[in-house]
């Protein structure tokens, strides 16, 4: 089932997520719905807060990046086959010189800005079967993980922008929160006036 994606301005996007257990109700269905919702919106990652749940859960599928001809065949192959569920994730280390990449977010449609992040991340998490992992990721995969991880920490990519950039996009963000935007996927807007 395709779920509505929560728009910028909703308080759930600023909440730090709580850990879940294996007993979390209907987790399999939730994961199915989240993947379906993400694919419907042409996303490469989706975090539970973006569908209104303040829990530490996000998923990533970088396959769409594999079509980018700027990557080597080997890099394209890695991106094409990277699909993962992260539950109760905790970043333990970020390394390397920060690099800029133009990021967007399904909760903040039509706003894209350069965000600086470190190129290498080590993360502890459990998968959908609650098997524990500690893994290190680099490059674009690390960036997508960092972006989604920020969501479960209550951080949006716009929080990482300079005060000047924030002022420049303030009006666009206000319009998103009021639902004054056209998107081709389901969204839930916090400040949209109810139609009479």
From TrEMBL:
Cofactor binding note from Swiss-Prot or TrEMBL: Binds 1 Fe(2+) ion.
Catalytic residues as annotated in Swiss-Prot or TrEMBL: 148
Binding residue positions for Fe cation: 105, 147, 151
Record bears the keyword Cell inner membrane: no
Top-level EC class: hydrolase
E.C. number: 3.5.1.88
Domain of life of the organism encoding this protein: Bacteria
InterPro entries recorded: Peptide_deformylase (IPR023635), Peptide_deformylase_sf (IPR036821)
Catalyzed chemical reaction(s): N-terminal N-formyl-L-methionyl-[peptide] + H2O = N-terminal L-methionyl-[peptide] + formate
One Pfam family linked to the record: Pep_deformylase
Annotated GO MF terms: peptide deformylase activity
Cofactor: Fe(2+)
UniProt KW keywords: Hydrolase, Iron, Metal-binding, Protein biosynthesis
Family: Belongs to the polypeptide deformylase family.
Functional note: Removes the formyl group from the N-terminal Met of newly synthesized proteins. Requires at least a dipeptide for an efficient rate of reaction. N-terminal L-methionine is a prerequisite for activity but the enzyme has broad specificity at other positions.
Designated name of the protein: Peptide deformylase
């Amino acid at each position: 089932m395709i779920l509505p994606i929560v728009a910028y301005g909703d308080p759930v996007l600023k909440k730090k997520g709580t850990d879940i257990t294996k007993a979390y109700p209907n987790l399999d269905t939730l994961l199915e719905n989240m993947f379906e919702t993400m694919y419907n919106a042409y996303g490469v990652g989706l975090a539970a807060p973006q569908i209104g749940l303040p829990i530490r859960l996000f998923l990533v599928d970088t396959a769409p990046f594999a079509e980018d001809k700027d990557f080597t065949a080997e890099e394209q192959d890695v991106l094409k086959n990277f699909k993962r569920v992260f539950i109760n994730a905790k970043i333990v280390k970020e390394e390397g010189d920060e690099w800029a990449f133009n990021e967007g977010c399904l909760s903040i449609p039509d706003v894209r800005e350069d965000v600086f992040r470190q190129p290498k991340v080590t993360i502890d998490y459990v998968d959908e079967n609650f098997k524990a992992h500690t893994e290190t990721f680099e490059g674009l995969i690390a960036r997508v993980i960092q972006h989604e991880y920020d969501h479960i920490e209550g951080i949006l990519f716009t929080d990482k922008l300079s005060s000047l950039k924030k002022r420049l996009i303030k009006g666009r963000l206000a319009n998103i929160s009021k639902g004054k935007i056209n998107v081709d996927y389901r969204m839930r807007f916090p400040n949209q006036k109810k139609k009479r």
